[in-house]
Amino acid sequence: MPGDREGAARRATELLSEYAIDAPSQLDLDALAFAAGALVLDAPLLGALARLVRRGDRGIIRVREGLTSPRRRFCIAHELGHFLLHGGTSQLASCTLEMIDDYRASREELEANAFAAELLLPRAAFQERCGAGAPTADRVRTLADEFGVSLTATLWRTAELGPTPGAIVGAREGRLSWFKRSDDFLFRLRDVGSRVGREALAHAACRGEREGIHHARVPARSWLDDRRVEESWTLGEICVPMLSVGSSLSLIWLTPDAGVDDWDEGDDWDD
């Protein structure tokens, strides 16, 4: 069940407007959660990144000690989403790495993720800063730093709001585990469960052979299984290894030799 992600995003927009937050530097998540009725505490947690305990209209968001600032911020925003969106469903909620990172998560987790994405990376501000043309690893890094979020969260938002038709693809242990295409990316991807092409950046990332974010041109057949795809076609791929061992997240899109008009030939591609 997909859930009401648009409604979750609207609630985040309303919260930002209510407290007149219109720039990433103004967003103090601990203070915002407190104003909304939830106290944030950093504490040891086993088996979860964050946990929400609720009593009536008050709550405590416990976040695992030692998380990086981007991960901590996303966890707070995610649990705040649960607090504001799901008041009637549970008094105790624990969120694991898999729940927060996995596109196939439950309805409530998807709504909490949509809330967190809009709170941390508001649509209008992100699109303004995202710019035109094909995305690059450097641009994703810059946006992640500016909004104070992880590379994976920024890559997700670039896939959703960026100007280039493409797909966001998860891989695990060298196999395609899930994908989500933009409406105007009309090519068939390899089946879920099939092996990723060896030339794909995700192949090396899943094997632990790459760290951090990378981008490159890769053969289109690395990801696509479509009779319309010619052998000479290439894809742009930006890949980030995930915290889950053996997993990666990639943004892929067709390069100009496959008919994309707004390609920037000045982009510095890795070989």
Short key terms for the protein model shown above:
single chain, 271 residues, alpha+beta, 5-stranded antiparallel beta sheet, 4-stranded mixed beta sheet, 9 strands, disordered C terminus
Number of strands: 9
**Largest beta-sheet characterization:** 5 strands, antiparallel
Give the CA-based shape. Answer: globular
Q: State the distance separating the first and last CA atoms.
A: 41 Å
Helix/strand structural class: alpha+beta
Classify the beta-strand content into a percent band: 15-25%
The stretches of 5 or more residues where confidence is low (pLDDT under 50) are 259-271
Query: How big is the Rg?
Result: 19 Å
Widest β-sheet, arrangement of strands: 6-5-9-8-7
Helix content: 25-40%
Count of helical stretches: 9
Order of helices and strands: HHEEEHEHHHHHEEHEEE
Structural features, described:
The structure is a single chain. By secondary structure, the protein is an alpha+beta fold. It has helices at 5-18, 29-36, 69-85, 97-101, 107-120, 123-130, 137-147, 151-161, 201-206; strands at residues 38-43, 50-55, 58-64, 92-95, 166-172, 175-181, 214-219, 234-241, 247-254. The chain has a 5-stranded antiparallel β-sheet. It has a 4-stranded mixed β-sheet with strand order 1-3-2-4. Strand 5 (166-172) and strand 6 (175-181) form a beta hairpin. The longest helix has 17 residues, at 69-85.
